[in-house]
Design goal:
By secondary structure, the chain is α/β, with parallel strands linked by helices. It contains 23 helices and 15 strands. A hairpin with a 3-residue loop joins strand 3 and strand 4. It binds arginine (ARG).
Length: 596
């Protein structure tokens, strides 16, 4: 068991002894923010003392009296208002590294009991090209599914594709009247986009045209065979585009149950909302209004206009009988609960939909309150990608940037850099490095900022070999790999990647070695923090610090030139760093190359 877990369990036991009626699961051990004070810290006693109106330092002293961690820690210190600071014994540090070097763990443990977590991400709309914005939901969602799986949770990823809605009336009309077959064969999505734009403009100008489009939609909704088959063809063509992008990005879903999947239940959902008086009719439509249970500021069904609170209902059925986005999402939650009984459902969707999700979760709690208590519904929101001008990122001609084009450009730019740096490499190898570096750079630049902030898309910055970038991390990894290539001893030591048997005895003397070693130990804690707060950026920063600590170590501590025992110990540190880098990048959805 990892040292911080051992400390945590013992601390929880000591707290339970002192305060028998306490839920000790909130007693957690985290990395100490400042290594001056220790390696790990717990601040849980302060909140426990506060709840009980106790003196926090006194409580800390009483708990300490019952806590024996002397096998792995130096003397435990009480600091400030009642923090506990723990400093690992050298022996505990080296033992943990040695067991990792033998392949027994990689500084993380599966969480028990595992949770069942549904994650809804990417979710593009049919008949439209995937654009640069889709990298956000797709990348963050994928990093979260990978983190949660690595920690042992049972994850169900579901791509909630937008394959239903009023746009199909216009698309059907266009398909029947002005479809250009050869163009459809060349680039289906571009042709569908063209049809939509033309018919949409006509509908805006001409009410009869709009009526025509509506009647195509009504026929589709009524199950008209011809319209259904065209609609299915549009979905099939879109799916090909989505799949191409997902396979480039290495993203997989367990399910892709689009919005249309839920059609059969939408009528029942609205009837039930009406019967339970959660929704009511208003101007021919059906909507859910405030129930007055919350102060106006927190009430998702009210908005403030000029100082006055006015109703902002969620529509469940339009006056023409069509159903809304919210209705589909209600049916979707219900289906997911019945099918998978998840502990959590996570929606990785842009922050502009935060009002939608607030309403959705509130309605669900009113509609099925018993079920709602069993599941945690989370909107994992994110901000926008901006251009250099601080406005939403566009092409030079002002169009939205297509995701496929963006990924092409990333690979091309990376190829230029690789060719300048390594002109001697064979062409295929250069291309493969450029693919990994280019895609990695785009993904990493998107995962690195706090997800709720907007960020400026900058090719030079994300592709730079210096700074907190994917190329920097990939280079650090490749550099370690080259150490092992250069030396026979080293490559013999690490010959067999799959069955680790690096039986080195670790001896950590130089301060750079100790800093690196302690940082390695925090990998699992970082993964847990990513999973708890749905923030892959914690892992980006961890990996960057790891690469920086490694490079300080490597500059100050000779490896291959050291005496045999020191060399083997240092090679083990190199190898562990490479493995954590590789595993960490993999969790972020980024591949690695052995040479760069
Ligand atoms: N297709 C939607 C859009 O492009 C996103 C769907 C997100 N998931 C959900 N369950 N609402 O805006």
């Amino acid at each position: 068991m990892l040292p911080h877990k051992q400390i945590e369990l013992k601390l929880q036991a000591a707290v339970r002894e002192m305060l028998p009626d306490t839920d000790v699961s909130i007693v957690l051990v985290r990395p100490c923010p400042d290594p001056k004070f220790g390696d790990y810290q717990s601040n849980a006693l302060m909140s426990l003392a506060k709840q009980r109106k106790m003196n926090p330092r006194q409580l800390a002293e009483n708990v300490l009296a019952k806590l024996d961690v002397s096998d792995i820690c130096e003397k435990v210190e009480i600091a400030g208002a009642g923090f506990l600071n723990f400093r690992l014994k050298d022996s505990a540090l080296t033992q943990t590294l040695e067991s990792a070097a033998r392949g027994e763990h990689l500084f993380f443990e599966k969480l028990s009991p595992p949770k069942t977590i549904v994650i809804d991400f990417s979710s593009p709309n049919v008949a439209k090209p995937m654009h640069v914005g889709h990298i956000r939901s797709t990348g963050i969602g994928d990093a979260l599914q990978r983190t949660l799986r690595l920690l042992g949770h049972h994850v169900i990823s579901d791509n909630h594709i937008g394959d239903w809605g009023t746009q199909f009336g216009k698309l059907l009309l266009g398909w029947k009247q002005i479809l250009d077959r050869p163009a459809l064969e060349r680039d289906a999505i571009a042709e569908l986009e063209r049809l939509y734009k033309i018919v949409n403009a006509e509908c805006d100008a001409n009410p009869t045209r709009l009526e025509e489009a509506k009647s195509e939609l009504v026929k589709l909704q009524a199950g008209d065979a011809k319209n259904i088959s065209i609609w299915k063809e549009m979905i099939r063509l879109s799916q090909i585009q989505f799949d191409t992008i997902y396979s480039r990005l290495g993203v997989k879903f367990d399910f892709a149950l689009g919005e249309s999947f839920y059609n059969p239940w939408l009528g029942e959902v609205v009837d039930d909302l009406l019967a339970k008086k959660i929704a009511r009719e208003s101007e021919g439509a059906v909507g859910v209004f405030s129930d007055g249970s919350l102060p106006p500021k927190e009430d998702p069904f009210l908005v403030n206009r000029d100082g006055e609170w006015i109703a902002d209902p969620a529509l469940a059925r339009k006056s023409d009988g069509g159903f809304n986005y919210t209705t589909t999402d209600l049916a979707t939650i219900d289906y997911r609960l019945k099918t998978w009984s998840p502990d959590e459902i996570i929606y990785v969707v842009d922050d502009r939909q935060s009002a939608h999700f607030k309403k959705l979760f509130a309605i669900f709690a009113r509609w099925k309150s018993a079920d709602a208590k069993k599941v945690k519904l989370v909107h994992v929101g994110f901000g926008k990608i901006l251009g250099d001008d601080g406005k939403p990122f566009k092409t030079r001609s002002g169009d939205t940037v297509k995701l496929g084009d963006l990924l092409d450009e990333a690979e091309e730019r990376a190829l230029k850099n690789v060719s300048e740096k390594n002109p001697e490499l064979p062409g295929d190898q250069k291309k493969e490095i450029a693919r990994v570096v280019g895609l990695g750079a785009v993904k990493y630049a998107d995962l690195l900022p706090n997800r709720q902030s907007d960020y400026i898309f900058n090719w030079d910055k994300m592709l730079a070999l210096q700074g907190n970038t994917a190329p920097y991390l990939l280079y650090a990894y490749a550099r370690i790999k080259s150490i092992f290539r250069k030396s026979d001893v080293a490559s013999a030591l690490c010959a067999d990647e799959s069955s680790r048997r690096l039986d080195a005895t670790l001896k950590l003397d130089a301060p750079e070695e100790i800093t690196l070693a302690k940082h390695l130990l925090n990998f699992g804690l970082t993964l847990e923090a990513v999973a708890e707060e749905y923030r892959p950026n914690f892992l980006c920063n961890y990996l960057f610090d790891l690469a920086v600590h490694f490079s300080r170590f490597f500059e100050n501590c000779p490896v291959l030139k050291a005496d045999a025992a020191t060399r083997d110990s240092r090679l083990a540190l190199c190898d562990l760093t490479a493995r954590v880098l590789k595993q960490g990048l993999d969790v972020l959805g980024i591949e690695t190359v052995e040479q760069m």
